[in-house]
């Protein structure tokens, strides 16, 4: 198990994890502050949290209701 972890290219994976974490936090804060969305807010919470990197991106592209 330790040999497998040492073979992981952390220099590539770590920045992606940081970007994903930041996107999730920003999307959840924005979802909390916004009043109208395209679809129920609880659905967007689950999409943001469980659809990995594409959930927060989908929220910003599709989920926010344009005024």
From TrEMBL:
Record domain Cardiolipin synthase N-terminal: where: 22-64
Pfam families xref list: PLDc_N
Highest taxon, organism lineage: Bacteria
Protein location: Cell membrane
Keyword check for Cell membrane: yes
Membrane topology: Multi-pass membrane protein
Membrane-spanning segments: 12-31, 43-62
KW Nucleotidyltransferase (keyword) present: no
Alphabetically ordered keywords of this record: Cell membrane, Membrane, Transmembrane, Transmembrane helix
Name recorded for this polypeptide: Negative regulatory protein YxlE
Source organism (scientific name): Lysinibacillus contaminans
